[in-house]
Amino acid sequence: MDKIKIKFPDGSVKEFDKGVTGYQIAESISKRLAEEALAVKINGRVRELNIPINEDAEIQILTFDDEEGKEVYWHSSSHLMAHAIQSLHPEAKFGVGPAIENGFYYDFDINTQLSEDDLRKIEEKMITIAGENHPFERVELPKEKAIEFFSKKGDQYKLEILSELDDKNEVISIYNEGDFTDLCTGPHLPSTGKIKYVKLLSVSGSYWRGDEKNKQLQRIYGISFPKKKMLDEYLQKLEEAKRRDHRKLGKELEIFLITNNVGPGLPIWLPKGTILRETLENFLKEEQRKRGYLPVITPHIGNINLYKTSGHYPYYKDSQFPPIKFEEGNEEYLLKPMNCPHHFQIYASKPRSYRDLPIRYAEFGTVYRYEQSGELNGLTRVRCFSVDDSHIFVRQDQLKEEVCNVIELIQVVFNQMGFKEFTTQLSFRDDNVEKYGGDLSLWDKAQQEIKEAADMMGLNYIIEEGEAAFYGPKIDFMVKDALGRKWQLGTVQIDYVMPERFNLEYIGSDGQKHRPVVIHRAPFGSLERFIGVLIEHYAGEFPLWLAPVQVAVLPISQNYLDYATEVYNALKQNGIRAELDDRNEKIGYKIRDWETKKVKYMVIVGEKEKENKTVSVRQHKEGDKGSLGISEFIDKIAAEIKNKS
């Protein structure tokens, strides 16, 4: 038989018979690998293990340890769940069922509103079907045959998807799994038997295709694993995530409030939350001041023509509040969806020379998006949020150095906040020209420049096509919190498009007019989202420099309230955020209460402390730390705050 060469990730090359499958290759390496294999990546494309390989190729056997292996596992689990739902509810019609970052979901239309008890029944049915070890069988077929099949099934959602597929450029495929058939591009596991341990987590409403005008379907979220230990660890992590939920802690710690009387997705910052927010702002403002940024403030609304010029309207039209129109005149205004068009007006307000550049404008600017109600989530998805926005106007020869300076600032921010692990994504354009503005050659230039800057800074990145902003490529920073969850926070973007649209210029050393390049950047991203992530990262136990309340002063009884007030005033006069607990309660009750409020230091004063001008110090979760003189304690706390420890 003809031989082909297979190259492995470690660079080694082996010969196999033409037509060899991924499973056979895994089996030739080890029995264990064959057992754990879920799919195979062939020349960068993930395929089923039973696909014949007929030419030389680079391959990787994917297991659950690989992100792409998990994706195949969870996507197959979504099909298994749909199979179980169909068995229990034969009238079910199905929308889409993708793998997501942690697990999977499926949207479906049935006549019954599902309960927790129903989820358990579906789980049990999934395990039964998995035990039957049905193979996932791929069938490619003409579009008309697929339409005929799903018409007989009466599944209008699959028919709608099919109506939009171009069978001249796309292969249409279905997957059979036992008596269940689904429209899908795959790939899938070899069989249902690979799916061992399943937990269905929740059911919620979801409008078909995310459009409130469409019917609301039910969406079940689930997770699955090949080993019970993995499922147990995940469920334990979920419980910890519930304990850290920023919506729960935000209420308990009196950080923010969201009320329907004001409107969903419109957070109100309570005093403690405002202190937390202002502390973050002041930290970044100081870092920006050292780096030559100039503060600016712009309005919350703008003439709609400003956003038509930028392209934000109608580009973001579906996620914007309706324009504000007046009966008299033809003026229309828009709640600000982005800060950048306003900053461009500042730059264009007077002539600029090459000697003026770079110019760095910075603003904590509030912007507005009309997110769908079902997408709102505490502080992490809101309709009104403040961006630590900056727009840097540079000459071409300054571009890469300035991008590197921005990356360094973002690294400083993440390190200070305790985000030790982060990865980066270079978000580039794809071939869909309608999604983007500007000249293609400038896009290529910008993408090359942003990649070179990332390389210069030694960033560990992946490249994702189709994720760019409509005006330029960007670097998106993904941090891992204390639970190992990924969050997209900071960003830096290169923009050749807006300077053209707004006719931005400077006079070069040659006396001629030139276009500046604009760098958009936001280390925090949205302050609301950033604080929501911080609350969960720290579980509400903020480092001292960030804590809204740094010290609680607790008199043992009302007899020592005068001395407690003296200590409290001394702390306040030294810039330490303190609260005096003057309640007529037992000291044990007060200590327990302040522990639940997660305040790092308590100072307890009684007769001995009053006589000696000392305080008895307790630290959150650590207990008694002994006695210190008032000035000694203040010096200790002030140093800890100054060092941001």
Structure notes:
- Helix 3 crosses helix 4, helix 8 (246-252) packs across helix 16 (527-538) and helix 13 packs across helix 14.
- The termini are far apart.
- Helices cover 35% and strands 27% of the residues.
- The chain is globular, with a radius of gyration of 29 Å.
- By secondary structure, the protein is of the alpha+beta class.
- It has 20 helices and 35 strands.
- The mean pLDDT is 93.
- The strands form nine sheets. It has an eight-stranded mixed β-sheet, sandwiched between helices.
List the helices and strands and how they pair.
Elements: E1 3-7, E2 13-17, E3 20-21, H1 22-29, H2 31-36, E4 39-42, E5 45-47, E6 52-53, E7 57-62, H3 67-88, E8 93-94, E9 99-100, E10 103-109, H4 116-131, E11 137-140, H5 143-153, H6 156-163, E12 173-177, E13 180-183, E14 197-207, E15 216-225, H7 228-244, H8 246-252, E16 256-257, E17 268-269, H9 271-290, E18 294-295, E19 301-303, H10 304-310, H11 312-315, E20 324-325, E21 332-335, H12 340-347, E22 359-368, E23 384-394, H13 399-416, E24 422-428, H14 440-456, E25 461-465, E26 474-480, E27 486-495, H15 497-501, E28 506-507, E29 513-514, E30 517-522, H16 527-538, E31 551-555, H17 561-573, E32 578-580, H18 587-596, E33 601-605, H19 607-612, E34 614-619, E35 623-629, H20 630-642
Parallel strand pairs: 1-7, 18-22, 24-25, 31-32, 31-33
Antiparallel strand pairs: 1-2, 3-6, 4-5, 4-7, 8-10, 9-10, 10-15, 11-12, 12-13, 14-15, 16-17, 19-21, 20-21, 22-23, 23-30, 24-26, 26-27, 27-30, 28-29, 33-34, 34-35
Helix pairs in contact: 3-4, 5-6, 8-16, 13-14
